[in-house]
Amino acid sequence: MVTENFGGNYSHNVYDGKKEIDFLCIGRTEKFIGLENIWKIIKSVRKSRFVMAGPATSHIIKKLHGIGIEHKGFVTEKEKFNLYLKSKVFIYPSRREGFGIAVAEALLLGLPVVAWRIPVFEELYSQNCHSSKMRLIKFEDYKLFAEESIGLTHKTNPLEIRGNGESKNNSLYFPNWNCVGQNVLSTIDSIK
Questions:
Q1: pLDDT one-digit tens code per residue, 52-75
Q2: Torsion-angle region of residue 148: left (phi > 0), alpha (psi -120 to 50) or beta?
Q3: CA dihedral sign of residues 109, 154, 28, 127
Q4: What does the pLDDT look like over 151-161, one tens digit per residue?
Q5: Are the beta carbons of 71 and 61 closer than 8 angstroms?
């Protein structure tokens, strides 16, 4: 069961199926670029709810609350799982990543993801492996990032965002485990 990947079985959670959070972001705030710009554009287009979780100083949390972003600080695995379930779109404007576990968790739970087009995401979410979609946006194109995020809020069924990869919106696929294994083996072979 998917929930076991989050450190426990949360099948006893009370979840009514409502997507009450428009945008979710989980991670370290110091890695994010353009978060305030993206949020400003989104807010100018429509009223939305944006929730964040993860490490942040009290100063940063206060600043985010001041611009209308609910930052919850550190949350338990159970709370994080519930945030994913209640969200429509996962946004992740990180400028650097080793792997991006929060992105993988969001995709695993069926959330569409919008992130910067950085090397790790291009490598992991290539069109050669098919499962679920995400949007990778040219770095610092805040307007397109916001537009893609807003557009995906209307697609609450994960099956609606699947497709053949032909899109002007930079759609890429989430790899299956066979593809990940092939990538790891080819990397090992290349350094022998």
A1: 999 999 999 999 999 999 999 999
A2: alpha
A3: positive
A4: 998 765 443 33
A5: yes
